[in-house]
Known about the structure:
Elements: E1 2-7, H1 11-20, E2 26-29, E3 42-48, E4 54-65, E5 69-73, H2 76-87, E6 100-104, H3 115-119, H4 126-135, H5 138-146, H6 153-156, H7 164-172, H8 178-185, H9 188-191, H10 194-202, H11 208-214, H12 220-227, H13 234-245
Parallel strand pairs: 1-3
Antiparallel strand pairs: 1-6, 2-5, 3-4, 4-5
Amino acid sequence: MEQYRVTYARRDELQRDFETQIARGGLYVLAPPPAELAYGARCGLEIVAPDGRAVALEGEVLAVTPGQGIALAIDAVAGDAVRVLLAGQGPDGAGAAASRHERVDGRASREAPAADAVLGWDSLSTVEKMRLAQHGSRDERAAALRDRNRALHPHVLKNPRMSLEEVVALARNPQAAPELLKLVAERPEWMGRATVAEALARNPKTPNDVGVKALAGCSAEAVRQMAKGVGAPPHISQAARKRVLG
């Protein structure tokens, strides 16, 4: 099944397309289709919002314009998912780029590294690095976190494909900025995982109040170990002892 993606950098563009197309049951994707794509074919469609969140949909080809794009029919349920996505978007920032329409190569996983982009990371502009941090592969997310420009790091957390394994590794990283660890802690879907909570509690770079709050999400055994001072900063050990003693 052919796969397409529309990435919006501006809320107003997403809202415009929602009101004029998606809410009416369709979307025109400005990405050249393959010659063999026929009327009625099913295609995957990912819509990525400015904050990096995304919804994956399926559509049916209504029209094909060779070399230009395709018109896809989208059902009402898919439209509701985009409505929810749109409702969560904040105001546009200054200088946001235009939306990007593309055909995704279905022969390879989206997680496959774009070798030339990663190897040439230092030659990319800040805007390009930001886009890859928010929407790129695992290798590209890792490259963004290694970048000296720490302003890029929070954009990795907006990537909808950020795995739990990556979050735990970040939460454990003693080189991570305290502000970045605080952002991890603000995501309830991550803090609900004991492995993330424990990693944050044990990390000496985690802000003190955040680390203490993280104890609530740790396993009882992990709290007992930290109460003994095993692999935890002093203020965490003290807070853990209070929990154990009750």
